[in-house]
Amino acid sequence: MGLGADEMMRASTAHALWRISALPELPAPRDVFRIAFEGGGLLLVGAHGELLRRATIVHADEADDWVFVLVLPHATDDIPDDFELRQQAALRDATEYLDSSCTADALFDAVARDDFDAFCDALAAVHAANRAALIENGHPAELSEQERDVIACMLAGGARFAGRALTGLGLFGLIRGGPASRALRRSLVQHLGYFGPRVMATICDNRGVVLNDS
Length: 214
What we know:
Blueprint: H1 5-21, H2 32-38, E1 42-45, E2 51-55, E3 66-72, H3 83-93, H4 105-113, H5 116-136, H6 145-156, E4 161-164, E5 171-176, H7 178-192, E6 198-203
Antiparallel strand pairs: 1-2, 3-5, 3-6, 4-5
Helix pairs in contact: 4-5
């Protein structure tokens, strides 16, 4: 889906096997997924896997939580197994076409101020800049009619920003508050049907991996 689930599963499995076997942990490739697994939060990661910046998205009150509502479609048989890897490679190859005026600073500034609207605006700008770079490099991330319909439904249901993951098929909407996210999910399930795409939600994990030896 382009949301890092496979990478997190691999990291979790490797970490669990290391704990069970009581052997020295082998060095793992450093990338945004591994860093997110270890620490969580809002991350800025360099091209060579170096952590450049980290911030904590505070969840002090469910009514004010920053919630990502996810719509995960059923992957069709014609989607290649390495689809996400191809999309990641295309995104890396397009970095030279990125608008230099679009940086991650606005994202981190918004988190520091706990400014949800500013964060959504900054995320929309980064998303648009990456889509433009992909188009410039000959790999446009075009949306299907159904995807546009789902995104429109998210925005109509209160999402401040919505789009599709640039490295997969997952759709997301960012909305403020647990109650609002539940209402949006109910609306999406009614719109898409019980047997339609999976609808779920998540908030930012600021801790990373948590060991439970019980």
